[in-house]
Amino acid sequence: MNKEQKAAVVEEVAGAIQAAGAIFAIDYRGISVPQAKELRTTLTDAGASFRIVKNTLTERAADKAGAESLKELLEGPTAFTFVTPDGDVALAAKAIATFRRQNRVLEFKGGTMSGEPLTIDQIEELARLPGRDQLHGQLVGVVASPLNTLVRGLASMISGLASQLQQIQEQGLVGGAEPEPSEAPGDPVAEAEAAEQEEVPEETSETSETEEGQ
Fold first, then answer.
1. 22 — phi, psi (to 5°)?
2. What is the rounded CA–CA span in Å between residue 113 and residue 132?
3. Are 23 and 81 spatial neighbours (Cβ–Cβ below 8 Å)?
4. What pLDDT digit, counting tens, does each position of 161-211 carry?
5. Helix (H) or strand (E) holding 25
6. Does the structure show a pLDDT above 60 at 78?
7. Measured at the alpha carbon of residue 123, what is the angle toward residues 121 and 128, in degrees to the nearest 5?
8. How far is CA 70 from CA 5, 27, 113, 171, 196, in A?
9. Is the Cβ–Cβ distance between 139 and 145 less than 8 Å?
């Protein structure tokens, strides 16, 4: 690699450092070329890339990008995973952790996220988080669940109210003609007294005629 090529690599890596939302420094000892290609393909789904560059060039790139904390990680063979600002940091960390478990290669050395240093433990914690799409699905489920419950509850209340109104209407208590009042049963004593009063004038009339005859 000549001087111009090295300068181009430094410029490219410096640009990747400045543009990345998160960076993982990884000890890549033991990884084969086919394995590295497989990992790059996997990381693409997370909006991330895997780059192996000589430490001397990476150090110059870190100087150019103003990323002093990355220079501290350049001990031994070091590769960088660059996660774009639109990428999924948790999914990228999970992809590397899964690849490590399956192939017994790659070790996190540290990194940065939003310009702040990341420890190995913090990256491991990120790897245990659900991916962004999975978190989004869980959030939608949490938000939708109370709404679905509310809708079902309101539908049940409305259905019950309609049923009660229908029963009331069928009983003639609303929405129809008022029932005609039934006649109250007569009082036997009052009916007897009224009958006597009607008979008294007839008896008086007969008595008067008899007296006149005498």
1. -150, 150
2. 16
3. yes
4. 666 666 666 666 555 455 555 554 555 555 555 555 555 444 444 444 444
5. strand 22-27
6. yes
7. 95
8. 22, 13, 11, 83, 124
9. no
Specify the pTM. 0.62
Give yes or no for a contact between 89 and 21, defined as CB atoms under 8 angstroms apart: yes
Quick check: helix, strand or coil at residue 110? strand
Q: Is 192 buried (19+), middle (13-18) or exposed (0-12) by CB count in 10 A? A: exposed
Q: In sequence order, what are the beta bridge partners of 113? A: 22, 116
- What is the predicted pLDDT for the residue at 168? 62
pLDDT digits 0-9 by tens, 30-62: 999 999 999 999 999 999 999 999 999 999 999
Residue 68, amino acid = E
pLDDT of residue 63 exceeding 70, the answer is yes
Determine the Cα–Cα distance for residues 68 and 7; give it in Å rounded to an integer: 19
Are the CB atoms for 79 and 107 separated by under 8 Å? Answer: no
pLDDT tens for 108-156 read 999 999 989 999 999 999 999 985 555 445 444 444 446 556 656 666 6
Reference 39, options 54, 57, 26; nearest CA is: 26
Cα–Cα distance, 201 to 194 (Å, whole number): 12
Pick the CATH number of 3-129 from 3.30.450.40, 3.30.70.1730, 3.40.980.10, 3.40.30.110: 3.30.70.1730
Residue pair 113/22 in contact (Cβ under 8 Å)? The answer is yes
Distance between CA 111 and CA 48 in Å, rounded? 14
